[in-house]
Amino acid sequence: MRQGQREQDEAAGGRQYRELRLEDGTVVVVSVAARRYARTPDQSYGYLQFKTNGKTVTKYIGRVTAESRAESLRMGWELLRSRKLAESFGWSWISKRGK
């Protein structure tokens, strides 16, 4: 397993919590990206990402500024779930995470 996959699995609470069913029934494994930009170098922004049909889908989650990358990723996963971003696009999680 690659380091990036392990990092995402840990932040999400386990690999099973990263699987998402799209409207057409396709199941994808999603990741959270924590990005910094030159105009706001002290802030990190979270994005949901996955590939389907040869294209990368990216959706903004929110600000995920934390002390470490691992904390920023965990924050991104928490925001993604609490804001029900995936559900707002008609997608559904394969495994439901406890509330």
Highlighted features:
99 residues, alpha+beta, 28% helix, 37% strand, globular
**End-to-end C-alpha gap:** 28 Å
Helices, by number, come to 3
Q: Tell me the β content.
A: 35-45%
> Globular, elongated, flat, extended or rod-shaped: what is the shape?
globular
The domain tally reads 1
Rounded to an integer in angstroms, the radius of gyration calculated over CA atoms is: 13 Å
Number of β-strand runs: 6
Strand order of the largest sheet: 2-1-6
DSSP helix fraction? 25-40%
Unreliable stretches: none
Q: What is the succession of H and E elements?
A: HEEEEEHHE
* Overall SS class: alpha+beta
**Main beta sheet, described?**
3 strands, antiparallel
The overall pLDDT average reads 92
Oligomer: single chain
Question: What does it look like?
Answer:
The structure is a single chain. By secondary structure, the protein is an alpha+beta fold. The chain has one domain (3-93). 28% of the residues lie in helices and 37% in strands. The chain has helices at 3-12, 69-82, 85-88; strands at residues 19-21, 27-29, 31-37, 40-52, 55-63, 92-93. A 3-stranded antiparallel β-sheet has the order 2-1-6, with no helix packed on it. Helix 1 (3-12) crosses helix 2 (69-82). The relative contact order is 0.21. The model has no long low-confidence stretch (mean pLDDT 92).
